[in-house]
Amino acid sequence: MVHRPPALSFLLALFIGSVLLHSCTMPERPVTKEEAMELSRKIEKSVARHNSTLLDKIFDERGFARRVRAETNISLDKGLLEGAIEGVQKARFGQQIVQGLGTDGSYQLVKQYEKDNHQHLLFRLYGNGNINYHDYELVKRGDTIKAIDIFVYMSGENISKTLAQTLMMMQSNMRDMPKADQEKINKINTIKALLAQRDFIKAGQVYDELPAEFKKQKIFQLIHIRISEGQGTESYAAALNEYESLFPNEPNMYLMKVDVYVLKKDYAKALESVNKLDSLIDKDPFQDYYRGLMYKLMQDTTQSLECFERLHAYMPGFSKGMIELIAAYTRAGDMNKAVQLVKQVKADKSLSPEAIQMLFTLHPDLQKAVEAAR
Asked: What is the average pLDDT score of the chain?
């Protein structure tokens, strides 16, 4: 009888959303820069249309399986690996990305580059006020371009490594685990359902029942952070601090520490984390959005305005960037530029009437200047 770990498909779906293999005999072939860029355009278009099909099937199953095995220091049980394959397929990577967009999100290419004779595509996922990065390592099977692995900045490692560590943990613990604890692991699917319902309190209660040894693992810690984020500032800060204590040197801490320092109102340290993350990525102009917000919290009007101007030049259609730039012009006393930008967003309807009214409510002087300009 094939051994399949309980709830593994739900666990993988939760991980991919917080933060993939049948046999194939076609040989790997190199991907050209032009082919990589063509794939990036297809990804951007499909996600913009909320079509997840392309990314749901993005993994090169044979190569990814080889990566998972290479990350383990034990011989994996065949049934366990097959269960992982099934779980990865059910996780639907593309669907998780589309769901993560929210109402104003985007999935955009930051850069294309080559490393160790493999083409890479680095994408930025922004949605619901959250940000993450996915670094695709590409291979070619026949005429199809696939990802042999994906480095997820939120987890600070390749998906293959996260999966391998999870499989090793399960192989070491599941078979000798008391039946009561195995049933608790099966409650991962309950957590998934509760998160879909945005019932973060009950999701946290179910999470607390999981075996203590499992909750120390990175994949469970990331799920815990996702749960705690919906429970309020205090719970979220505690979850981030717990993660940092368990994984103090992880590269993804730059991403998480922005939230940690903002919650502590240490905006200078938050800005430092933004800059370190940007350096790790090797520059993303979108990070000017977060720099601008940090300078705004530090009441540095000049630096904040410069950041939002650069952001607007890079992403003129980003609505939150427009709002912040209009507000920054207003705070700086440059009403002419603020009024002109309000006129522009009204004319091209790039901001909703509700967003413009919110700006007027926060900045009554702006509303008076706009009315006077008529």
From this structure: 85
